[in-house]
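Weekly modeling sync, notes
Attendees: S.R. (lead), two postdocs, one rotation student

Agenda item 3: backlog of single-chain predictions. S.R. asked that every request posted to the team notebook include the full sequence so nobody has to chase files. The rotation student volunteered to paste the first one in as an example of the format we agreed on. Action items at the bottom.

Example entry:
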Amino acid sequence: QVHLVESGGGLVQAGGSLRLSCTASGSAFSINAMGWYRQAPGKQRELVAEETNGGRPNYADSVKGRFTISRDNAENSVYLQMISLKPEDTAVYYCHAILVRPNYYGADIEYDQWGQGTQVTVSS
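Predicted structure, as returned to the notebook:
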């Protein structure tokens, strides 16, 4: 019922930049946090950046100073500005959201939602 749609991936040279976008669509939900994960070939999915409501963003050590996460709460969107890209940044990037919706009795229920992923490839 709730979908996360990503865009902005592509192929760039080392040192280049990309901007990823993700928008959550649906009804009867609110968002507690939005962020980005990535999974490189042969590796586990890892947190890249995440921002909770009213909190400071968290970044993986490997991307601090190069990636910037931002949110547009009115549009239920999250963005990831990536600069100074390195070949080791090559991965599938997944949008992630912690959603809250009322259950049948009106109590809030928190759950995770994932986008389908967008490929980022950085060549040497």
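Discussion: group reviewed the output briefly. The chain is about 0% helix and 60% strand.
Action items: rotation student to repeat for the remaining queue; S.R. to check formatting next week.
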